[in-house]
Amino acid sequence: MKHKQSLRVISLCLILIGSALVEASQSVPADKEEAIVGDTGELYTGVLHDYKGGTYSGVLLDGKPHGQGTWRHPNGEYVGEWKNGIIHGQGIFTSYAGRKYIGQWKDGNPWHGNVYDENGVVVAFYLEGVRTENQ
User: Fold this and answer.
1) CATH code, domain with 87
2) Could you read off the pLDDT of 24-65 as tens digits, one per residue?
3) N or C: more exposed end of the chain, with fewer CB within 10 A?
4) How many domains does the chain have?
């Protein structure tokens, strides 16, 4: 019973993160950008505080995450690729309870990868955005 409840929690976290990041396609106000490390044309490295309930650090394009970055928030941490403010590409989401999703993301949602419990056991997988629980 506890195992199923844990899976529900991580599923809810992934859904909430996905929907929050889809909304992230709006530009972030310039006053949210800090600690700019370097400028490479339109791409630059920086930190966005209070970004969708957390802190983003990594590559930015027009004030939005774009490229490799880390997003820390109350539910956990995502490390991986972004595209125009949305999680998109390879990445790892780790909940603070120790559960992980490792794999491909598409438009802010898990697309192709595995969900691991806190002991590193695969408990579910995503294939083309569809989640299947291991039996």
Assistant:
1) 2.20.110
2) 333 444 444 444 444 555 788 999 998 889 999 999 998 899
3) C
4) 1
